[in-house]
C-alpha cells in the first residue's frame, strides 16, 4: 500500500512540530542559556534560562544588539567580530568556546563559558550561543585555588629551606678548605726568607680544585631538582593554555581584559609535565595581567605556532608598560622583583621548568608596547 502525498506531508509536519516541542522542552530545562542572533548581531531568540541569567524579559531584548549583554571592550567591538568572521571566515570563537564575561541588566558582570555555533541555509546565517554561568564554579575554584596557593607557598618555602640547608651543608666543606689553603698561601708569602713556590702553587691548585667542586655540588643539586619531578607525556597545548589562563585569572581583577588564545592548526600536543607547564603558563599570565593594572587598553594574547626542529613556540603577550629598564638583565634571577609584595621567583621557576623540558624562555617587546614572553617546547605530534 502506497502513502499519499498528503499523508507524507502530514507526517513531516507532525515530525516538525515534535522537533519543535522537543527543542522547547530541552531549552526550558537545561541550566545553560541559549541566545540566537542574526548576522547583524540582533537577538532573535532568548531562552528562559537566558532571561533568568541576564534579568531581561525576552520582549526587552528581541531585535536589540547582543552587545548589550557584554561589558567593555567586547561591547564596542562585537559588531566588528561578526564582520571579521563574515568577511574572512576565520573562526575565533565558533566551535571553540571561551571563558569570558557577561553583563546583567543592572550592569553587574559575571564570568561565563560561551560556546558559539552557526546555522545557515541559503537565505541567512544565524549564530547560536550557549552560555553557562560560572559564578558558583569560580567561587569554589577560588577557594580551592586559595588553598592550593597556600599549600604551594608553604611547600615552596619548605623546599627552599631544605635546598638552602642542603646547600649550606654541602658547600661548607669546600669553602672551609678554600679558606684554609688561601690562608696557608698568605702565611707562606708573609714568612721570613724566600717563598716556597712549590708549596704556594700547591695551596692555590687545591683551592681552585675545591672551588670547582663547590660549583659541581650546586650543579648536581639543580639537576636533582629538575629530574626529580619531571614526568612528561603528550598533552594538548590548547587545553593547557586555556586551563592555565583560567587558573591565573582566579582571584585577579580581569575586568576589561581582551583575552584571546590562538593555537596554530599544525600544533596539537606537546611533550610536557602537565603540572609544571601549567605553573609556567599561570606565572606568565599573572605577570601579564598584573603589568596591565593601570593600562587603559588591556590586551592579553596567548599564541602557539610551530618552530624549528619539531618544536612549538608559545607566546604570552600583554599591552602593559613593558619591562622596567633595570629589570631586563636580571629578569630570570631569583628574588628580583619590581613589585611591593612580589617574591621575584615566578620567572626563575618558569625558566627552570622550561629549560628542564629542553626549551628556552626569553622576553621581547610586544606589538602593543608591552612585554611578550616566548618559550619553546617539544612537539609530541
Ligand atoms: P614577581 O612577579 O613576584 O615580581 P617574577 O619573577 O614573576 O616575580 O617577575 C619578576 C619581575 O619581572 C617583576 O617584578 C616585573 O618587574 C618583571 N615582569 C615580569 N613579567 C612582566 C610583564 N609581563 N610586564 C612587565 N614586567 C614584567
Write the layout of secondary structure elements.
Elements lengths: L4 H25 L3 E6 L4 E4 L1 H7 L3 H4 L12 H15 L9 E6 L5 E12 L4 E9 L1 H56 L6 H33 L3 E4 H13 L8 E6 L5 E4 L1 H18 L7 E9 L3 E8 L27 H11 L4 E5 L5 E8 L3
Parallel strand pairs: 7-9
Antiparallel strand pairs: 1-2, 1-5, 3-4, 4-5, 6-8, 9-10, 10-12, 11-12
Helix pairs in contact: 5-6, 7-8, 8-9
The site of adenosine-5'-diphosphate has 22 residues, from α8 and α9.
Describe this structure in words.
- By secondary structure, this protein is an alpha+beta fold.
- The chain folds into three domains: 31-133, Beta-Lactamase; 138-227, Signal transduction histidine kinase, dimerisation/phosphotransfer (DHp) domain (Helix Hairpins, Orthogonal Bundle); 233-378, Histidine kinase-like ATPase, C-terminal domain (Heat Shock Protein 90, 2-Layer Sandwich).
- It is 48% helix and 21% strand.
- The protein is built from nine helices and twelve strands.
- A five-stranded antiparallel sheet has the order 2-1-5-4-3. A five-stranded mixed sheet has the order 7-9-10-12-11. The protein has a two-stranded antiparallel ribbon with strand order 6-8.
- Helix 5 runs antiparallel to helix 6 (197-229), helix 7 (237-249) packs across helix 8 and helix 8 (274-291) runs antiparallel to helix 9.
- The model has no long low-confidence stretch (mean pLDDT 83).
- The structure holds adenosine-5'-diphosphate (ADP).
- Adenosine-5'-diphosphate (ADP) binds next to helix 8 and helix 9.
And the CATH topology of the largest domain?
Heat Shock Protein 90
Listed once per kind, the bound small molecules are: adenosine-5'-diphosphate
- Largest pleated sheet: 5 strands, antiparallel
**Could you give the distance between the termini?**
58 Å
Portion of residues in helices?
40-55%
Class per helix and strand makeup: alpha+beta
Please write the string of helix (H) and strand (E) elements: HEEHHHEEEHHEHEEHEEHEE
CATH 2nd-level architecture of the largest domain: 2-Layer Sandwich
How many separate domains?
Answer: 3
Shape: elongated
Amino acid at each position: 500500500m502506497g502513502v499519499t502525498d498528503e499523508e507524507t506531508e502530514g507526517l513531516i509536519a507532525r515530525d516538525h512540530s515534535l522537533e519543535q516541542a522537543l527543542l522547547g522542552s530541552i531549552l526550558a530545562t537545561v541550566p545553560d542559556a541559549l541566545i540566537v542572533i542574526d548576522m547583524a548581531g540582533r537577538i532573535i531568540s532568548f531562552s528562559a534560562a537566558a532571561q533568568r541569567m541576564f534579568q531581561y524579559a525576552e520582549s526587552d531584548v528581541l531585535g536589540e544588539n547582543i552587545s548589550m549583554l557584554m561589558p567593555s571592550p567586547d561591547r564596542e567591538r562585537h559588531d566588528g567580530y561578526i564582520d571579521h568572521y563574515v568577511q574572512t571566515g576565520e573562526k575565533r570563537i565558533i566551535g571553540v568556546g571561551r571563558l569570558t564575561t557577561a553583563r546583567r541588566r543592572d550592569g553587574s558582570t559575571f564570568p561565563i563559558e560561551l560556546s558559539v555555533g552557526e546555522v545557515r541555509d541559503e537565505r541567512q546565517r544565524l549564530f547560536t550561543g550557549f552560555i553557562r554561568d560560572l559564578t558558583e564554579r569560580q567561587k569554589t575554584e577560588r577557594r580551592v585555588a586559595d588553598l592550593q596557593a597556600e599549600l604551594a607557598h608553604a611547600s615552596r618555602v619548605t623546599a627552599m629551606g631544605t635546598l638552602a640547608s642542603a646547600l649550606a651543608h654541602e658547600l661548607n666543606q669546600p669553602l672551609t678548605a678554600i679558606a684554609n689553603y688561601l690562608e696557608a698561601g698568605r702565611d707562606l708569602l708573609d714568612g721570613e726568607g724566600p717563598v716556597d713556590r712549590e708549596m704556594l702553587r700547591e695551596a692555590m691548585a687545591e683551592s681552585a680544585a675545591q672551588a670547582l667542586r663547590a660549583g659541581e655540588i650546586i650543579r648536581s643539586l639543580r639537576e636533582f631538582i629538575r629530574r626529580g619531578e619531571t614526568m612528561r607525556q603528550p598533552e594538548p597545548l590548547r587545553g593547557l593554555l586555556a586551563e592555565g589562563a583560567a587558573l591565573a585569572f582566579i582571584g585577579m581583577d580581569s575586568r576589561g581584559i581582551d583575552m584571546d588564545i590562538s593555537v596554530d592548526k599544525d600544533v596539537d600536543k606537546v611533550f610536557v609535565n602537565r603540572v609544571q607547564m601549567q605553573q609556567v603558563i599561570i606565572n606568565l599570565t599573572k605577570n601579564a595581567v598584573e603589568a596591565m593594572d593601570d593600562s587603559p587598553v588591556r590586551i592579553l594574547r596567548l599564541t602557539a605556532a610551530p618552530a624549528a626542529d619539531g618544536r612549538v613556540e608559545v607566546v604570552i603577550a600583554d599591552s602593559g608598560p613593558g619591562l622596567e629598564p633595570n629589570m631586563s638583565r636580571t629578569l630570570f634571577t631569583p628574588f628580583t622583583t619590581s613589585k611591593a609584595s612580589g617574591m621575584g621567583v615566578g620567572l626563575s621557576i618558569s625558566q627552570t621548568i622550561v629549560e628542564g623540558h629542553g626549551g628556552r624562555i626569553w622576553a621581547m617587546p610586544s606589538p602593543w608596547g608591552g612585554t611578550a614572553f616566548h618559550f619553546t617546547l617539544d612537539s609530541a605530534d
